[in-house]
Design a protein that fits this description.
By secondary structure, this protein is an alpha/beta fold. 39% of the residues lie in helices and 29% in strands. The strands form two sheets. It has a five-stranded mixed sheet with strand order 5-4-3-6-7. It has a two-stranded antiparallel ribbon with strand order 1-2. A hairpin with a 4-residue loop joins strand 3 and strand 4. The mean pLDDT is 95. Pfam families: RNaseH_like. This is Ribonuclease H-like YkuK family protein. InterPro entries: Phage_KVP40_Orf299.
Length: 156
């Protein structure tokens, strides 16, 4: 299940339909699809939130997110790899559920919650290399709003 701030809980199929409807409502506009995951770890659990944003460039956006819980992931490298894996998993799900046409037509960015500052700096080359090797563009902080702003907002 996914959550839309305006539509509540929706299935994957309903989300894909809504994304198609959003593009059909203004087919002359340009779009960008963004997927990003962020996490929050406590002593008992790690909550992982994956966000999908469809940005009607210059004219707003719509987003959906899903939450998953796992055992606590205290290791930063493990957490970043898991976040990236969930983002790529969502792309695969979307391709299998009828969104491959939109993904082929509009740019797709995977937003990763890592950056030049702090502990995650050492992970940039390997994580970005992984994502680009499977064919997707990556964005890191400060450009990774899909992970560091949208997903982060729902991770706690």
């Amino acid at each position: 299940m996914f959550v839309s701030p305006s539509k509540g809980h929706v299935t994957l199929e309903a989300m894909v339909q809504d994304l198609h409807d959003y593009v059909r409502a203004d087919p002359a506009s340009a779009y960008k699809i963004v997927i990003g995951t962020d996490s929050h770890t406590t002593r008992r659990t790690t909550t992982l939130v994956t966000a999908l944003i469809i940005h009607r460039i210059g004219r707003g956006a719509r987003f959906f997110y899903r939450k998953k819980s796992s055992r606590p992931l205290f290791d930063l490298r493990t957490r970043i790899y898991k976040e990236t894996e969930l983002s790529l998993e969502l792309v695969d799900l979307l391709n299998r559920k009828g969104m491959d046409d939109l993904l082929a037509e509009w740019p797709l960015e995977i937003h990763i919650d890592i950056g030049q500052q702090g502990e995650t700096k050492a992970l940039i080359q390997e994580i970005c290399g992984w994502v680009t090797s499977v064919g997707y563009e990556t964005r890191i902080k400060p450009e990774s709003f899909g992970a560091s702003s949208v997903a982060d907002r729902f991770a706690e």
